[in-house]
Design brief:
By secondary structure, the protein is of the alpha+beta class. It is built from two helices and two strands.
Length: about 60
Amino acid sequence: MENDPYFIGTAVWGWSERMIWPPGGATEFFPNVPQADVVSYLQANMPVPAAALAAGETR
């Protein structure tokens, strides 16, 4: 995927203090902090577009 010119990114769940859906509703989603092993896995395995690497971004 890193060398695919049509690859524009990866959608990943975002972590925050809390998320309520729908807006103004009562349904809350957790956890608020990702586990260290999850962060390590994503850093090592999430594809990065070649253009981003060429622009100086790191994994």
